[in-house]
Amino acid sequence: MIRRVLLLHGLFNPAWWLVPLAGGLRKAGLEVDVFGYPTLAGGSERAIVRLQARLRAAPVDAIVGHSLGGLVALEALRLAPDVDVARVVCLGSPLRGSAVAAALADRRWGAALLGRHAALLRAGVPAWQGAAAVGVVAGHAPRGLGRLFAELDGEHDGTVAVAETRLPGIAAHCVVQASHTGLVVSAEARRQVLRFLQEGRFEPVVGSAAV
Q1: Beta bridge partner(s), residue 62
Q2: How many CB atoms sit inside 10 A of residue 187's CB?
Q3: Alpha carbons 90 and 135: distance in angstroms, whole number
Q4: In whole angstroms, what is the distance from residue 40 CA to residue 98 CA?
Q5: Tens-of-pLDDT digits for all 211 residues of the chain?
């Protein structure tokens, strides 16, 4: 049974950005905490090590990560298979690598914005083979600054293409009407997160391929 949930924010977002999502999950009876990490001054490796230490010191049943947070969560678990987490939900995470991040990294000022998270954002993560069941909620409301820096093929949330979220080995995937930043405040996305945490699957979405 899923009871304890840890939330991870994305690039440029502070921990308080996840307050609405945390509140909604708490109303559903879950114990929720937020893991904050530097997204500019620090790098992915440091965030991953800190997350692994947090999970060992205070175990949780599930992790919900928005954008970069989902990448950090999966890498932390992949590199520490002894850490026991039952389920992970990634919200708009470019698990197969981000075209926007690649475009920004080719610009001097863009590389500075991405900081030491650039490599993880550009490359994504390997096909999932870990013990945790992973579900991905992608958005397809094309609003966001990311589309100004790179051409996003097919459906996208303004920053991340839906295709970039479809990682081999995950347990479930669904697409909701939300922009990239809007995923953390979307009632539909929150319902899908809860469904996956409780049942390991998503609700069917009209006009979308929910698994």
Answers
A1: 5, 87
A2: 11
A3: 6
A4: 18
A5: 899 999 999 887 888 889 999 999 999 999 999 999 887 767 888 999 999 999 999 999 999 999 999 999 999 999 999 999 999 999 999 999 988 877 765 555 444 555 567 788 888 999 999 999 999 999 999 876 555 455 677 898 899 999 999 999 999 999 999 999 999 999 999 999 999 999 999 998 654 443 3
Q: Which two tokens stand for residue 165?
A: 């979220």
3-state secondary structure of 32: strand
What pTM, to 2 d.p., does this model score? 0.91
Instruction: Report CA-CA distances (Å) from 38 to 10, 23, 116, 117, 188.
Output: 10, 23, 10, 10, 28
DSSP 3-state assignment of 191?
A: helix
Return the axis-axis angle of helices 19-27 and 187-199, rounded to nearest 10°.
50
Structure tokens at 155: 């459906």
What length is written for the chain? 211
In Å, how far are 51, 62, 142, 161, 180 from 100, measured between CA atoms?
25, 28, 14, 9, 12
| Side-by-side strand order, sheet with 172-176 | 31-35, 4-8, 62-66, 87-91, 133-139, 172-176
Tokens of 116: 């030491």
